[in-house]
């Protein structure tokens, strides 16, 4: 049984008497202990998908249709009390900016203890010991001293470690990490990613890593979902997607990595920009930016097809596979 199943999920925003689609027919599964990544530019729908998994979409957004099943329980039909049992204990979330999560006027320790005691009947002393142990687990030096400090007294990397410690307090089955290294320098980014990877491996925790950077994803995720304009356009093993990207958008993301340009050369970029919810084009949403777009791409929505071990929604790939199969048949 899959730990998490997202089935034909559609999320809409009601804006000025219009229904704008933010997520369109999104489906994927997550096994216990598996590490997947959701990749795409800003506006692709990555964070909305992450918030949807824990049913935290704020108005005017709402889950229009589809199911999000934690084992055999549909999160979309749960009431607030049931959701509070899920959030933190079964599914925990790491946000981009730790200062948005941590209360600046409460000590680190009191915030961790409050999290434990809000879900359990543990006394303060035992909760304090658990919190200090979790701080030690995320490689925070002198955790007893850090316990009594306020968020502003810690560095950005240290605050992100505190957030990771906080999501581990209740031993969740799934961690959703939304751009967890965005505000950190490269060295600290690598440390945080290695820490997340080690924690998931050691504790059998499943990870959903949300990122715009395929370079970051390659170090952590076993499987990658590439999103564009609210839809998944390619899915497959991470190394396969990085070494042999099928969708033109995935190819563009990889070509835009800094290491793909020669020293002194301008960085590669995908022409144009992500369409807004109100300006989503007909057909394949990527066609205005795609160098291979045809009239069919502009009028019809491609279906998912298998290409090797990956699946991709692209007419160009479909045509190439058809030609390849016809060539093989001709040789028989």
TrEMBL record:
Q: Which GO terms describe its cellular component?
A: plasma membrane
- The EC number of this protein is 7.4.2.9
EC class of the enzyme, as a word: translocase
Q: Can you state which reaction this protein catalyses?
A: a dipeptide(out) + ATP + H2O = a dipeptide(in) + ADP + phosphate + H(+)
Q: Does the keyword S-adenosyl-L-methionine apply?
A: no
SMART domains per UniProt: AAA
* InterPro entries per the UniProt record, alphabetical: AAA+_ATPase (IPR003593), ABC_Ni/Peptide_Import (IPR050388), ABC_transporter-like_ATP-bd (IPR003439), ABC_transporter-like_CS (IPR017871), Oligopep_ABC_C (IPR013563), P-loop_NTPase (IPR027417)
Ranges where the ABC transporter domain occurs: 6-254
Q: Which domain of life is it from?
A: Bacteria
Provide the transmembrane region boundaries.
none
Location of this chain's protein in the cell: Cell inner membrane
- Protein topology in the membrane: Peripheral membrane protein
> Mind listing the GO molecular function terms for this protein?
ATP binding; ATP hydrolysis activity
What's a single GO BP term from this record? transmembrane transport
Q: Which UniProt keywords apply?
A: ATP-binding, Cell membrane, Membrane, Nucleotide-binding, Transport
Family, according to the entry, reads as follows: Belongs to the ABC transporter superfamily.
Query: What is the name listed in the Swiss-Prot or TrEMBL entry for this protein?
Result: ABC-type dipeptide transporter
